[in-house]
Amino acid sequence: MSLNFNPLYRQVREHLVGRMRSGDWNAGEPLPAEIELAKELGVSQGTVRKAIDSLVTENLVVRRQGRGTYVATHEEPVAQFRFLRMRPNIGEPVQPESQILSVESCYPTEGVAGLLGVDLVQACLLIKRVLSFEGRPVVLDEIWLPPQQFEGLTQELLQNYKGPLYGLFESQFKVRMIRCEERLTARQASEEQARILNVAASTALLIVERVSFGYEEKPMEVRIGSCVTEGFHYLNFLS
Amino acid sequence: MSLNFNPLYRQVREHLVGRMRSGDWNAGEPLPAEIELAKELGVSQGTVRKAIDSLVTENLVVRRQGRGTYVATHEEPVAQFRFLRMRPNIGEPVQPESQILSVESCYPTEGVAGLLGVDLVQACLLIKRVLSFEGRPVVLDEIWLPPQQFEGLTQELLQNYKGPLYGLFESQFKVRMIRCEERLTARQASEEQARILNVAASTALLIVERVSFGYEEKPMEVRIGSCVTEGFHYLNFLS
DNA sequence: AAGTGGTCTAGACCACTTT
DNA sequence: AAGTGGTCTAGACCACTTC
To answer: Which helix (H) or strand (E) segment is A222 a member of?
Structure first.
């Protein structure tokens, strides 16, 4: 009969996730040693290992042999391209430069409100920016954020921060992005988009609509990217 | 000093992959029980389990509790949407109908030859088809195949086969696709594409360039899909 | 009842990093 | 040398499927 049989290692996993959520261990900080956790929780080291294994495959933590297990962060080099999939057609992946166009408080469109799970009458933060690869504008982003979690976010803060936005979110606002859903379509550039991206008005753009999640099931960001795909592409691996 | 230290479980893994490649166990067939394999290879069951774990995460095999471990196949329902990412904007994922437009022997373009790793002077198989979702044409595919592995592939065979192409490839030609690299761009529809897909001539299309691999490192297929994204999108999960 | 994968334990030893 | 994660073993028992 036994429904809801929950294996020990999964309970341990949930326990560890809870402590990361609650701030016991922040991004970049080490977890206690496996043997310590095992003693503390009254289980074997193997069970703790299996729990941590699953956290590793979900990119919640990183193992470093001989040193320890650390809460994953978007700042470390290996994570730089985790959510950034635009690549030049030839040559190595390159880090883009970000130019913030505007930061405003703004009522969401119906579509955005639905995706973000907020009311239409609740103003959201709207960031507009351009990502440039080697001086060439490639991505025009509209980034919508729920205002509660991101109080104090200013244009200066954004413009002065180097590195991926999610690094800023996790260090300044305790919002760690874990996973995203992206919907990709193609659409002709509007006149404004064409001007900003420096392409002809009718150019076909790749539209990337992203909804991002933290530890919770509630969306924490909606991002609409309009991408030039002359000389660049969106790279995806299937398995 | 010990470089190239290769753990036992990885050796076991390679052994198992080799036996799948060589046809010892074909798609859909069961592997010997873990305990059997352990005895046979002179290792513990735990080591076999760890090897099989990695095969499971790579979708090479499927575990079924109480029954056994089976070589994964593209025929099983769970695999239907593994490599097919186009979804209707509203409602559930749907299986497309495939209409074969042509099957010809054809010299590859420079780009395709490079991706497939074949000579420009070697004729390849070129399949053109349309995928329709609920009667509406959405994807126009150009599928390039190296001719050696696909002798005997005809339009009749393709048209009569229901289900994903990769199911046919694995059952008829012993070619199992394991992983793909996709490069996505946006481009205006050509007149011919617009006619076939029943859209206006200047419509922006989502272009999906896919290179597929089997057990070997050699590409086994190049596929160029031109997708209508009015009412449909390409779905991707990042983590 | 028998056979399969799934969980859990305890302990040994190895590889790597830091002190 | 001490501490960490990484590998490997042997054995017990549980959950699920088939006979």
So the answer is: strand A219-228
